[in-house]
Amino acid sequence: MTTDKGIHRRSLMAGAGLAAIATPFVAGATRTHAQDMESDSMQVADPPASDSFNLGDFKLLVVEDGSRVMDNPGDTFGTGQDPETVAALLEENFLPPDQMVNGFAPVLVDTGSETVLFDTGMGPAGRSWGAGRLRDGLIANGYQPEDIDIVVITHMHGDHILGLMEEDGPAFPNARYVFGEKEYAFWSDDARMGTPAEGGHETVKKMVVPLADQATFIGGGDEIVPGITAMEAFGHTPGHLIFMLESGDRRLLLAADTANQYVLSLQRPDWHVRFDMDKEMAAETRKKVFDMVAAERIPFLGYHMPFPAVGYVEKTGEGYRFMPKTYQFKL
Ligand SMILES: [Zn+2]
Predict the structure, then answer these.
(1) In the predicted model, what is the mean pLDDT of residues 254-263?
(2) Is residue 305 helix, strand or coil?
(3) What value does the mean pLDDT of the chain take?
(4) Which first-to-last residue range defines the signal peptide (predicted)?
């Protein structure tokens, strides 16, 4: 996903409404009325939703950085399809045809010796509409921003990199960084000026380029720390990377933005997605990655899957059926 200003503007009011509905359920019993009023005015959960579970010796912590309502899901996840076909598939899956909720799920992997954060959410740019909550979620779970050892960026769309910087400097001040070599080369290149990628280029210059001195640049097959290996999954962006986690006899794929809508993009992986920069390549990658996930029966975490964004896929006729995790990681 990218940060599309049009979608942002359209969804502001609807997104705020959704958060307001959630607020009464999350206000703590010990909070004062004034705090609750403040919480209502910010219209965000406090702390943000999070989910932690073990994968072998790794501890994973998924934080809901934020979510927003998007209108007309078919315009984004079924570009070029007959709107009635898209609406029918959504309704068949008990979803409304005209709106969807899209969340952002960065994940911290604590290997026991290092803390590795994958993607950074919306950062300060999302605060006005209730996103940019990653650091709050980490702190609520006992991790200070200073505790993060490595920040890995799967790709350089705004919803993944805007949380790299706070107003006063790097959001994770003691971290080193891991960036995809191909991804960084694309977005940091001044040749993007005057193209549709110009906005992304400007964001990367502000958020990512200042951190390049502390970064390692990687490609497919590179190991970040023992048990975390990068894989190429190009198409959504030119250098989009995903990561296989392996600990003990457990595996989980961090699939980032390989598929971004659990019905439309998984059940119909060939459908074009507006935010996929190379739509054909992204569809091919989607099928290759999820064929593997289905065949090997491994769980995956998708950055925009329904929170806590972890599940399995079963291969069906044209695509895959998403099954959210339940208690598999407790046994
Ligand atoms: Zn995204």
Answers:
(1) 97
(2) coil
(3) 89
(4) 1-29
